[in-house]
Amino acid sequence: MARKKIALIGAGNIGGTLAHLIGLKELGDVVMFDVFGGVAAGKALDIMQSSPVDGFDCKLSGGSDYAAIAGADVIIVTAGFPRMPGMSRDDLLTKNAGVMGQVAEGIKQYAPDAFVICITNPLDVMVWALQQKSGLPANKVVGMAGVLDSARFRTFLAEEFNVSVEDVTAFVLGGHGDTMVPLTRYSTVAGIPVPDLIKMGWTTQEKIDAIVARTANGGGEIVKLLEKGSAFYAPAASAVAMAESYLKDKKRVLPCAVMLNGEYGMNDFYVGVPVVIGEKGVERIVEVEFTPEEKAAFDKSCDAVKKLVEDFKKLGV
Ligand code: TXD
């Protein structure tokens, strides 16, 4: 059986980490694409030279020709510009909209059957633009944010309870960032919901509220520490988990940004909800019942995403 092929569009911090993780996990051969072809080629060569030491078989290559992504099984998109001082959100939207247009063209032409994972910010609108412009079916184009947001939540909860991260599950919905909606009653330690743990005296509501706020600001906390650039290890690991579920038909239940078509009473835009990822891409959208407070928070998050999509449409790019 031929090895799987994974194309990475964008060979920056996340792109490089993705390539390394994919190699270490032997998920397939890697093609890196970047407007700076030398950076893509250099990172690919460097990682390939680590393979004899770590003992993995994986061919990696890099460049700036879209033809190289031909026939890719999975494509992970990190291409784009970060927000710089003095830049408005519209500036970022316009610039990255242009980037998504090019990426969508490349995918449409060379790898229309791929499962596409978008990471570029502002995530919920960029993944929507990528799907619209590429014309790929919506079940094959997803955005990565929820896996990362819930990993951050799990990390902080495990620290608070002094238990293994493996035994902590978290449930996060909504748009990426400030308006993210963590559902604490579906977040557990070995199946025990967080509200029960509060009753059991393991923690307090105040501490959980602080953890929720820290999670929502998780990206900002790292940007502040790094001073240049944003998080890349955990974002890359999160996207790899999504790719692996598709490639191995694991049918994991993961929070991803997906196109809603009536689910949760929403239509025609991307937002984070739990989904099953298997060989067909998004195989099922999990719809849970909300309490009135949760519904209000989810609606608010959806409104923020919808506003960004409207702003994007007004740009006319
Ligand atoms: O949860 C999430 N979704 C995120 C999103 C978590 C963390 C970071 N998130 C976003 O991912 C971040 O705001 C950025 O929009 C992307 C990529 O982050 P990364 O840290 O990898 O950014 P870099 O290092 O700046 O890399 C971007 C690369 C860089 O090498 C550029 O040369 C390249 O993108 N680039 C392009 N490649 C191909 N085609 C075009 N047009 C292009 N333009 C820039």
Low-confidence stretches: none
Task: Please outline the major beta sheet.
Answer: 6 strands, parallel
The helix/strand series, from N terminus to C terminus, equals EHEHHEEHEHEHEEEEEHHHHEEEH
The radius of gyration computed from the alpha-carbon positions, rounded to a whole number of angstroms, is 19 Å
Beta strand count: 14
Which small molecules are bound?
Answer: 1,4,5,6-tetrahydronicotinamide adenine dinucleotide
What shape does the CA trace take? globular
What is the topology, as strand order, of the major beta sheet?
3-2-1-4-5-6
Q: Overall pLDDT, averaged? A: 95
Structural class, by secondary structure, is alpha/beta
List the total number of helices. 11
State the end-to-end CA separation.
42 Å
Briefly summarize what is shown.
This protein is of the alpha/beta class and about 325 residues long. The chain has 11 helices and 14 strands. This is Malate dehydrogenase.
Per-chain topology:
Elements: E1 5-9, H1 13-24, E2 29-33, H2 37-48, H3 51-54, E3 60-63, E4 74-77, H4 89-110, E5 115-118, H5 123-134, E6 141-143, H6 146-161, E7 168-169, E8 172-173, E9 181-182, E10 188-189, E11 192-193, H7 194-199, H8 205-216, H9 218-226, H10 233-247, E12 252-261, E13 267-278, E14 281-285, H11 292-315
The structure holds 1,4,5,6-tetrahydronicotinamide adenine dinucleotide.
Domain Lactate/malate dehydrogenase C-terminal: 148-313
Keywords: NAD, Oxidoreductase, Tricarboxylic acid cycle
InterPro entries: L-lactate/malate_DH, Lactate/malate_DH_C, Lactate/malate_DH_N, Lactate_DH/Glyco_Ohase_4_C, Malate_DH_type3, NAD(P)-bd_dom_sf
